[in-house]
Amino acid sequence: MEYVSVIETERGGFDFDHSVRNATVASGVAKYFKATKTGTTICGVVCKDAVVIGADTRATAGPIVADKNCSKIHKLADNIFCGGAGTAADLEHTTAMIAAQLELHARSTKTKPRVAMAVRRASAHLYKYQGHVGCALVLGGFDIHGPQLYQIYPHGSTDCLPFTSMGSGSLAAMAILESKFKDNMTTEEGANLVAEAIRSGVMNDLGSGGNVDIIIMTRDGKADHRRAFLSPSPRTYTNPKPYIFPHGTTPILYEVSKEEAMMTDD
Fold first, then answer.
1. CA-CA distance, 199 to 169, in Å (whole number)?
2. Which residue, 50, 38, 24, 239, is CA-closest to 141?
């Protein structure tokens, strides 16, 4: 039976019996990574001659609405775009990195990048960080294989689907998509369906809001990015009078003349 002990010794796998680590965590000295909840609604559909991706425009910082008109649709190539949900910094840097890689590949091969390659690059990068890069993507585009739509999870898993939604408002958006999606939709039908799905997320999810942005990628390689395609909850009140603060509200430390200010700028 000696060979059994050899096999047990050389057997791979993970050992979760880390008593020292567990005691350290239990003592409160070390803490596990704490995930941050983010809010967004993104979705996409495949039409007969186009791919349509949509997103809301609310950016949050905890319970605070940091930006009411944030663009969540990112360009990866002329024929490939994606909508992003998750941590804004992670999304900006991840999409910029993938866009740079696709551009370098296109210049070296003199061909347009394919959608599958963009998906593979994003998936490999996210899998390497095991979900610590908070980046969920709805990625779509048009290449020699026609219109394609993928969803990419923060851990790196991917799915190729005719329609999908992600983010905290994805359940409300998916209800619209599943009930109204049909094959071989026209471009305008797809755009209206995506806008309605995003609107459902905006109205039923506190983490989603603002306007509805969409982008339409067609067979000829053109992308029509329509910002504020819908405004489900416009601001109904604006102050008719500007705020006027009396002189002396803010103390004046020093004053400079116009000429001195121009010399300082130079």
1. 10
2. 50
Q: Which two tokens stand for residue 63?
A: 């319970």
Closest CA to 208 of 163, 235, 172: 172
Q: pLDDT tens digit string along 98-149? A: 999 999 999 999 999 999 999 999 999 999 999 999 999 999 999 999 999 9
Known active-site residue 40: yes
Query: What are the tokens at 88?
Result: 């804004």
Which CA distances in Å does 33 have to 39, 126, 162?
19, 17, 35
Q: Determine the residue type at 145.
A: H
Q: Which of 40, 57, 60, 87 is catalytic?
A: 40
In which residue are the tokens 């000829």 written? 220
pLDDT score, position 245:
83
pLDDT in tens, 22-67: 777 777 766 665 655 668 999 999 999 999 999 999 999 888 999 9
Q: Is residue 222 within 8 Å of residue 204, measured between CB atoms? A: no
What is the set of domains in the chain, with CATH numbers?
Answer: 42-230 (3.60.20.10)
Neighbour count for residue 153 (Cβ, 10 Å): 16
d(CA 131, CA 118): 18
DSSP state of 11: -
Q: What are φ and ψ of residue 212, in 5° steps? A: -115, 115
